[in-house]
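Troubleshooting entry. The earlier prediction with adenosine-5'-triphosphate gave an output that would not parse, so I re-checked the input for stray whitespace and re-submitted. Clean input:
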Amino acid sequence: MQTGVFGGSFDPIHHGHLIAARTLLESLSLEQVRLVPAGAQPLKGGRHLAPAEDRAAMVALGVEDEPGLLLDRIEVERAGPSYTIDTLRSLLAGGLEPVLLMGSDAAGDFARWRQAAEIRSLVEVIVFTRAGQPAPAGLGFKTVQVPLVDVSATEIRERRRAGRSIRYLVPERVLSYIETHRLYQSETG
Ligand code: ATP
């Protein structure tokens, strides 16, 4: 059976990610969806506001008690920039049948990814689009609709910096983690 590979910064994980992951799990009948926080992300200049260990810990809390969704620490543990091609090769070598899941914003950038053509030849790539928003045209990917949940990690970080609540945007346990570790209170994290 196929394993969905859902990569991102997860800085932090939020309900938009989780609803998309669960929808993809069900509508594509995947065995599982692995959420893969990037270690250092090449197209974001390697910068994140929260350290990789915190981002991974929050993903772990977000998928706790969620059958079929799990954290994969593969990119957090690998040294150097996180390239999806390396992740997919490792998963293939481990005997899994990965399907790469990408939001339509990530799909727009896909041509710049390392070994993009190789990725397409190795695994199935699915682009998920949010209901009511146009699918990216002309890229030739299969698309799946997920519910529109208008929340982003950027908004969550901005709300924190402004001292506003992020309750209901992230799972309760993630909220507690952010508060306990005082994440996203300033520009530098
Ligand atoms: P940022 O605001 O920092 O750019 P983000 O909220 O977009 O972060 P990422 O970790 O960059 O989150 O996203 C990982 C993947 O999750 C991307 O493929 C993106 O399209 C998707 N995604 C992000 N937010 C949502 C959402 N609200 N609904 C569905 N998918 C989402």
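This one parsed fine. The chain has a mean pLDDT of 93.
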